[in-house]
Write a structure and sequence with these properties.
Layout: E1 7-11, E2 17-22, E3 27-30, E4 35-38, E5 42-48, H1 57-70, E6 76-82, E7 88-93, E8 98-104, E9 111-114, E10 119-123, E11 127-132, H2 136-141, E12 147-152, E13 156-162, E14 165-170, E15 175-178, E16 183-187, E17 191-196, H3 200-205, E18 211-216, E19 219-224, H4 228-238, H5 254-259
Antiparallel strand pairs: 1-2, 2-7, 3-6, 3-10, 4-7, 5-6, 8-13, 9-12, 9-16, 10-13, 11-12, 14-19, 15-18, 16-19, 17-18
Length: 265
């Protein structure tokens, strides 16, 4: 086994965090900004590359870091090691309401493909790279471009999803159609492509976009009910222009703004 064998526990419901238990000399890698807390004795180290820890030389590290730039992630990752005797804990938090999903890569043939912003943390030795699409339709209309993230190795990885999570197991030839933003990830046996919704009324007035993601088995598909792009879009749509409240949900509406003391004359 090349990846470190870590133990973990997930806490919370809507805003979860994962606590990783590290034995002496064990380590975990994480995206910048996901760290929450750690015990005394944990050493932090900024690493350059894909996080696998393989000795691939300077050029290999440059290529690994370049892959991360293509997915929109930081050039560097952070590693946390237990340098003392005895067990130590380090925790990583969800960036927004949803669920943290543990992925045992040994159960999926050593590879899992996910949205580029889904990765949270993983055992040291897991490689965080990119998955290029070979299909033009997926590259142009898939919402994630030609690139998705891939996690490779034989250790534990953790991804984050918004809202509620559904896991669909597809038999060979079985098809599932999903909103492109609602895909968390899928196993390497899944065939992923983009399908045009069709129909002028559906396209113009349906409000669901022009394309679905078409996923065909065999394999597992992880789906989220609230992708971050959808959440951010609703928040931006609710922001009033000029910083003034729209009075939504209020019978008084604008009159309520005059009475609440926030307006100045």
């Amino acid at each position: 086994m090349t990846a470190h064998e870590i133990d973990y526990r997930i806490y919370g419901e809507e805003m979860q965090y994962v606590e990783i238990e590290l034995d002496p000399q064990e380590g975990v890698i994480a995206e910048s900004g996901s760290f929450m807390m750690m015990d005394d004795g944990i050493k932090m180290d900024t690493i350059f590359g894909d996080g696998s820890g393989k000795d691939s030389g300077f050029l290999g590290k440059i290529l690994g870091a370049g892959k991360r730039i293509l997915t929109g992630e930081s050039l560097f990752m952070t590693a946390f090691y237990n340098d003392l005797t005895g067990k130590r804990n380090v925790s990583f938090a969800s960036p927004y309401p949803g669920k943290i999903i543990p992925i045992d890569l040994t159960e999926y043939g050593g590879k899992f493909i996910c949205q580029k912003d889904a990765f949270l943390c993983a055992a040291k030795g897991v490689s965080v790279g990119i998955e290029f699409s070979k299909k033009l339709g997926r590259g142009l209309f898939g919402g994630e471009g030609f690139i998705m993230q891939k996690l490779e190795g034989d250790g534990m990885a953790f991804v984050h999803a918004g809202g509620t999570t559904a896991v669909k197991t597809l038999a060979a030839g079985e098809t599932l159609r999903v909103d492109t933003g609602c895909i968390i990830g899928f196993t390497q046996g899944i065939d992923y492509d983009i399908e045009f919704i069709g129909g002028i009324k559906n396209s113009i007035f349906g409000g669901e976009g022009l394309f679905f993601a078409k996923l065909q088995g065999p394999g597992k598909v992880y789906v989220q009910s609230l992708p971050f792009s959808r959440l951010a879009g609703r928040v931006l749509a609710s922001v009033p222009s000029g910083g003034k409240s729209k009075g939504e949900g209020s019978i008084l509406g604008g009159l309520g703004d005059l009475l609440d003391g926030d307006n100045r004359f």
